[in-house]
Design goal:
Elements lengths: L17 E6 L10 H4 L8 H20 L9 E2 L5 E2 L5 E7 L2 E7 L4 E10 L9 H4 L2 H7 L6 H23 L9 E5 L4 E5 L10 E2 L2 E6 L2 E10 L2
Antiparallel strand pairs: 1-5, 2-3, 4-5, 6-11, 7-8, 9-11, 10-11
Helix pairs in contact: 4-5
Length: about 230
């Protein structure tokens, strides 16, 4: 299955996952299901509306490529997460005027997560000491010339992992619970979780960052074992 890609971003996934990246000027409000439009509050700002419509347009393009009819809505859960149609797993992310979405019906993939950040404009959250561990901050500060980029990579990686795990663990998981350890030889992160979060031995996953200019795109697949 071929992935659809934006002008700037390439899919971080193999062909088993469809990936779409679009800008706000490529959004298609008419492509949304009426139930999706009703998710928006009547008092939502124009910025919120544009962001939502662009994300849902990207997701609908993913579903089109997976051959899911537009009569099936992509709703939203209590935590704000998209509820994908039965048999589909996917993820959506927004950054500035970009929206990216990925999805698959591959039964060997339990869940996936994606996140997009502009590292050049990244502002570490006030809760950095809670979100980042001492070892993560040490890795980010090894080279002061790219410290901001590394902090953005860590944050984006944690967001992608969180999105992949949220369907199974919900609010029992916080982004600060996720620990990332960079593996230079593999060019990816190994993931550590608290003992309260148990991943079955037949499931495996890693966090993979990709740099596209000023953007970092992170992806995670939670894959069932053979």
């Amino acid at each position: 299955m071929n992935a659809s890609e934006g002008r700037l971003f390439k899919s971080p996934f193999d062909n088993e996952v469809v990936f779409v990246a679009i800008t706000e000027d490529q959004s298609e409000p008419e492509s949304l299901h009426p139930a999706e439009v009703n998710i928006l509050s009547p008092t939502a700002s124009q910025k919120t509306r544009r962001r939502f419509i662009t994300g849902r347009t990207a997701a609908r393009q993913v579903l089109d490529q997976i051959s899911v009819g537009r009569e099936v809505p992509l709703l939203r859960g209590d935590g704000g997460e998209p509820i994908w149609p039965q048999g589909i797993v996917g993820s959506i992310s927004h950054c500035e005027n970009w929206a990216i979405a990925a999805g698959t019906r591959d039964p060997d993939i339990r869940s996936l997560g994606i996140d997009l950040e502009n590292w050049a404009k990244f502002e570490p959250p006030d809760s950095s000491l809670i979100i980042f561990s001492t070892s993560e901050l040490r890795w980010a500060q090894q080279d002061r010339s790219c410290e901001l980029q590394r902090l953005a990579i860590l944050f984006s990686g944690k967001e992608a992992v969180f999105k992949a795990l949220y369907p199974a663990y919900g609010r029992s998981l916080e982004i600060g619970d996720i620990r990332l350890q960079w593996q230079a030889t593999e060019q990816r992160f190994h993931i550590g979780l608290p003992s309260t979060i148990s991943i079955n031995s037949n499931l495996s996953f890693t966090a993979l960052p990709s740099i596209f200019g000023n953007y970092v795109l992170s992806s995670t697949i939670l894959r069932r074992g053979l």
